Amino acid sequence: MTADGGRGDQVPRRLSIVRFRNQNGTIFVYRDEEGWELSEVAGRIWRLCDGRRSVREIADSVAEQFEVEAEVALADTIEFLDDLHHDRLIEWAPAAQT
Question: What DSSP designation does 3 have?
Fold first, then answer.
C-alpha cells in the first residue's frame, strides 16, 4: 500500500445536483440552499474533479501550479476532497479501466 493509503488512485466527480460559477476568477459552489466560496487552490481542485482524473493527478497539478511539495499537495488535496464528499458535493467515481 502507498503512503496515501491508496487514496491517490481514487477518482472524484462533481455531483450533477451541484451548481457552480466562476465570478471574476472566484469559484462559487451551490447545492440546495447552501453555498461555498472556494479559495484559488480549492477552485483549481474543484475544476479538476471531472470523474477522469485521479486524486494523485489533481494533486500533481496543484503542486505544479502553486509550487508546493508533491506530498503536501497530495495530503491537502485528499483532505479537501474528503470535505467535499462529506458536504455531498462530489462522489467517488469508479477508477478508469485500462
Answer: T
DSSP assignment, residue 51? S
Q: Report the distance separating Cα 72 and Cα 59, nearest Å.
A: 9
**SS3 of residue 13 by DSSP:** strand
- Going by pLDDT thresholds of 50, 70 and 90, the confidence category of residue 32 is very high
In the 8-state DSSP scheme, what is residue 21?
Answer: E
Question: How many CB atoms are located within 10 Å of the residue 9 CB?
Answer: 13
C-alpha span between 13 and 61 (Å, rounded): 16
- What domains appear along the chain, each with residue ranges and CATH number? 10-90 (1.10.10.1150)
- Count, residues in the chain: 98
**Residue 32, all three cell numbers:** 440546495
Contact 35, 29 (CB under 8 A): yes
Give the tens place of pLDDT for each residue, 48-85: 999 999 999 999 999 999 999 999 999 999 999 999 99
pTM tops 0.85: yes
